[in-house]
């Protein structure tokens, strides 16, 4: 199916999905400008990179936007971003939103409201349209899987707590977060230093295990995404093949799933 036909089917101009994509693009351009000013390396990743290569922008049915960066760049980002963002945007991490328990951050839009299908966001302070800011670092597969098992308890607590019990549940989630990030994950990082630095994975506690080959990432280059030149891995073919196999082949269009259950865009 041609790209124009896909756009007409899934995200025609003026549709709610296209408005969400345009808002995410607006956020990304602000984010990109800040990263460039401070020398923070990041790149389009996962489905966003796939859309960049295959469609020249968003995958027509995609309702999220992902970027990746190394841990040292993320740490710098968390220091500079709050003071650089306009008032309509917010950095969401545990330091800025105490109920937020993920190991990576989000850039949130304050002129919208989004409810995710998993409903974990119901306890977060910021609930607008977002960009995922994924963090990569060195970790062997067995250690990474172990870290995900520990955070799994937090997910289970929120999945099983009944309405009105969120505050009590978040006390338990907070204790798991403090244990993981204060003790367990620092130990895991020390152990990870003993292994090879040829590959990096999502930071500890993020349940995506596919590694990224450092040589495929750097030096970063640029590619056109929705008419803008934005950072992408050095070898996008190797990156996408590792993740998706035959990535230029379209999926079954009748089985497309979205991440958001409800979206409201205020302006």
Looking at this protein, list some descriptive labels.
267 residues; alpha+beta; 7-stranded mixed beta sheet; two-stranded antiparallel sheet; 8 helices; 11 strands; 43% helix
Secondary structure elements and their pairing?
Blueprint: H1 3-10, H2 16-38, E1 43-44, H3 46-55, E2 66-70, H4 71-84, E3 89-92, E4 105-109, E5 112-116, E6 130-137, H5 141-160, H6 166-192, E7 199-202, E8 212-213, H7 214-217, E9 221-225, E10 228-232, H8 236-244, E11 260-265
Question: How does this structure look, described?
Answer:
There is one protein chain. By secondary structure, this protein is of the alpha+beta class. The protein has one domain (3-265). It has 8 helices and 11 strands. The chain has helices at 3-10, 16-38, 46-55, 71-84, 141-160, 166-192, 214-217, 236-244, and strands at residues 43-44, 66-70, 89-92, 105-109, 112-116, 130-137, 199-202, 212-213, 221-225, 228-232, 260-265. Strands 1, 2, 3, 4, 6, 7 and 8 form a 7-stranded mixed β-sheet that branches. Helix 5 packs antiparallel against helix 6 (166-192). The longest helix has 27 residues, at 166-192. The chain is globular.
């Amino acid at each position: 199916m041609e790209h124009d036909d896909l756009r007409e089917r899934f995200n025609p101009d003026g549709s709610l999905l296209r408005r969400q994509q345009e808002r995410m693009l607006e956020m990304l351009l602000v984010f990109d400008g800040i990263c460039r000013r401070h020398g923070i390396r990041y790149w389009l990743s996962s489905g966003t990179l796939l859309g960049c290569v295959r469609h020249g922008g968003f995958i027509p049915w995609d309702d999220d936007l992902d970027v990746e960066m190394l841990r040292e760049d993320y740490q710098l980002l968390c220091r500079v971003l709050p003071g650089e963002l306009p008032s309509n945007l917010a950095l969401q991490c545990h330091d800025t939103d105490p109920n937020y328990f993920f190991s990576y951050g989000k850039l949130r839009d304050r002129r919208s409201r989004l409810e995710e299908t998993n409903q974990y966001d119901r306890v977060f302070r910021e609930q607008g349209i977002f960009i995922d800011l994924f963090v990569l670092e060195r970790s062997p597969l067995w250690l990474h899987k172990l870290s995900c098992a520990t955070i799994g308890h937090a997910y289970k607590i929120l999945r099983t707590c009944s309405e009105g019990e969120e505050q009590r549940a978040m006390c338990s989630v907070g204790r798991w977060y403090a244990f993981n990030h204060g003790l367990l994950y620092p130990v895991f990082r020390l152990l990870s230093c003993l292994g090879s630095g040829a590959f990096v994975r999502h930071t500890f506690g993020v349940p995506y295990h596919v590694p990224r080959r450092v040589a495929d990432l750097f030096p970063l280059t640029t590619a056109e995404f929705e008419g803008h030149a934005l950072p992408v891995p050095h070898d996008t073919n190797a990156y996408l093949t590792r993740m998706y196999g035959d990535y230029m082949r379209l999926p079954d269009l009748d089985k497309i799933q979205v991440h958001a259950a409800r979206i409201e865009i205020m302006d």
